[in-house]
Amino acid sequence: MQDIINILLERKQTISTMESCTGGALANLITNIPRSSEVFKFGAVTYSNEFKIKMGVKKEIIAKYSVYSMETAQEMSKNIVLYTDSDYGVGITGKLLRNDPYNKEGLINKVFICCYVKNKNTYYKKEILVDKETREENKREVLEEVIKLLKEVLNDKKNKDI
Fold first, then answer.
1. 2-159 domain in CATH 3.40.50.720?
2. For position 41, what pLDDT does the model report?
């Protein structure tokens, strides 16, 4: 994460997050880095459908694709950018080690990660299956994949000149 923060600092760019299954773990990881306050604008933990919708995720997207879908992760990543006017937004949704009695759709342990780049109107997406024994271990695995995705996004030539 230090490398990501350094790149954002160098470019004078910002990032915000909207997390569900990771419960703010990404925001925590970011804010553990010195000077992250210069690039991190906002982190939302939208554990319920109600607050995903209040933060801009279209209820029609949730109804059509489920809250556990790439379409929802895309909405999360874009809407957090719109809410905060950040350069990058990360949306994370998925099920970790349990069924959700309110949202029966979707596979257990499947996580959807999306990074939205505002000035290019581009989405970078990743789906993963986690297989650890605890939620904490699965969150760490998701964070590792988020870091890989963010490095890919920041190293993509078309995003270097934003």
1. no
2. 98
